[in-house]
Design brief:
The protein contains six helices and 24 strands. By secondary structure, the protein is an alpha+beta fold.
Length: 490
């Protein structure tokens, strides 16, 4: 080889080595920049300990603050922290979550069961009066990920966990576009619910765990999670401006209007308020650890409601029924029940002593509405809660007498008197054995029967009846002093 060729080869090799060295230096600087950038987000993190009964080891995870409103701090985390590991045969348990803020390890809070969205595997924990002041906010990335990127998984165990850097290796996990996977150093237990961010600290996902049989981790994409947060009645405060830039984020199509969120109110033709309930999946039937469940509440099974609906914010009132009676030929206001009790003396109390056909006719008059199916009623009553009730019995249920609507605490979706006011007619026939383990979509109820399904319990019932999953049936022509209804429309 000629000296000139050797010289050119040497220069190319030196140049290549210099270029590689520069890339290493740039990568190191980029990593240092990223670590410094991520450190500023640490104070928004929390460690989560979900205690179990019977002395079992707790589940450990991570979450992060997504909104502070008044005295409430809202934390986003992974839903599976609160569920038994059925792959290992773990029995159900009563979760008791404790939250420790990275910003103040001495600020430790115990909370009730959080609001959950099984569709996207997330939960929201609400902490009241945390007193931490202004916390850093995450900004949501609206640009697509690619396979050459690296991401960081943030976690807080009082500062004791590292921040793993991972490389993205799959953009559609299990053919689900709302998930992606990554690999690298491996992710230990305790990172479930951690924010996953890019090198600029922009939020791209929520860490959920490892893929079975591998050391690869996987996450839910933040873009898909953002769309479900309004369903849980949480308005996230992402980014310096305190709001999510939603122009490029996918949305759930909510019936005819994609802008509606659960809890939106509108006025009905009958003079009552109606609440928008967005579609989602939920577990119908016996609640975890509810020892009061009867056979007809089992098995608990997953149900998908594919369409949203408007539901009466309260049971139909005596005043609303009077407006109906004035407008519809031949309709009167019942003054006595089948048992002879005097009823319907207070205009602002739920109307009672109406038959199933009476209730169905009223809903048709009130703008082409109808009675809810059992699945729609239970989904709305739970409002994201997995417990037997959506609140403390004494705060949500009427006791000893029939009271006015809105006199007690509503559920998380702004619905009043779903439990413990009046039994509520549903559209379904009552079937004691029609539940199934199979996941179903928009179940219509039993194919037939002698009684119509009632839900909710009443002010004269025992606490056993005042549960979201409790079911009963009544002859459609019955006029009970504690039986009312509410309407829905799509």
């Amino acid at each position: 080889m000629m000296p000139e060729a050797l010289s050119q080869q040497r220069h190319r090799r030196i140049a290549g080595n210099l270029a590689a060295a520069c890339l290493l230096i740039l990568a190191a600087r980029s990593s240092l920049f990223a670590q410094k950038n991520l450190a500023s987000l640490q104070d928004a993190l929390v460690s989560i300990e979900v205690k179990k009964d019977n002395g079992r080891a707790p589940n450990i995870g991570t979450g992060f603050v997504i909104a502070v409103t008044g005295h409430s701090t809202f934390i986003l985390t992974a839903n599976h922290l609160f569920l038994p590991d059925t792959t290992r045969g773990e029995p159900a348990f009563n979760p008791a979550p404790w939250v420790t803020f990275h910003a103040d390890p001495n600020e430790k809070k115990g909370r009730l069961w959080p609001k959950a969205s099984p569709t996207y595997g997330i939960s929201i924990i609400e902490v009241v009066d945390s007193g931490l002041g202004q916390l850093p906010r995450f900004s949501v990335r609206d640009q697509a990920l690619d396979l050459v990127e690296h991401v960081f998984i943030l976690a807080s165990n009082n500062g004791g966990w590292p921040t793993p850097e991972m490389s993205i290796n799959e953009l559609n996990y299990d053919n689900r576009p709302d998930r992606f996977t990554y690999g690298g150093t491996g992710v230990a237990s305790g990172f479930s619910g951690s924010p996953v961010v890019d090198r600029n600290g922009l939020l791209v996902g929520i860490h959920q765990g490892e893929t079975p049989g591998t050391r690869y981790g996987w996450a839910q994409r933040i873009k898909e999670i953002v769309e479900v947060l309004p369903v849980l009645q949480v308005k996230p405060q992402f980014g310096p401006a305190g709001a999510v830039e939603t122009a490029n984020l996918p949305r759930v199509l909510l019936s005819s209007s994609p802008t509606l969120t659960t809890g939106t109110l509108r006025d009905g033709k009958d003079g009552l308020k109606y609440v928008w309930i967005a579609p989602d999946k939920f577990t119908m039937g016996c609640s975890p650890n509810d020892s009061d469940c009867a056979d007809d509440e089992n098995p608990a099974h997953q149900v998908t409601l594919s369409k949203g609906f408007w539901m009466g914010q309260t049971p139909v009132t005596v005043a609303a029924w009077k407006r109906y009676a004035a407008a519809a030929k031949g309709v009167t206001v019942p003054t006595k029940s089948d048992g002879g009790s005097t009823v319907n003396s207070d205009d602002q109390a739920p109307v009672v002593a109406v038959t199933w056909e009476d209730a169905r006719a009223y809903c048709g008059w009130a703008g082409g509405l109808r009675l809810p199916t059992e699945a729609q009623w239970e989904y709305a009553a739970r409002a994201g809660s997995l417990g037997a009730r959506y609140g403390d019995l004494e705060k949500i249920a009427m006791r000893g007498s029939l009271q006015r609507v809105k006199s007690l605490t509503p559920n998380a979706w702004n619905l009043y008197n779903m439990l413990g006011s009046v039994w509520q007619w549903t559209a379904d026939w009552y079937g004691a054995k029609y539940y199934t383990l199979a996941a179903v979509t928009d179940p219509p109820g039993a194919a037939g029967g002698e009684t119509r399904a009632l839900r909710g319990g009443s002010w004269v019932g025992v606490p056993l009846f005042v549960r979201a999953s409790y079911r009963d049936g009544l002859q459609p022509a019955n006029r009970g002093s504690n039986v009312g209804f509410r309407c829905i429309g799509e």
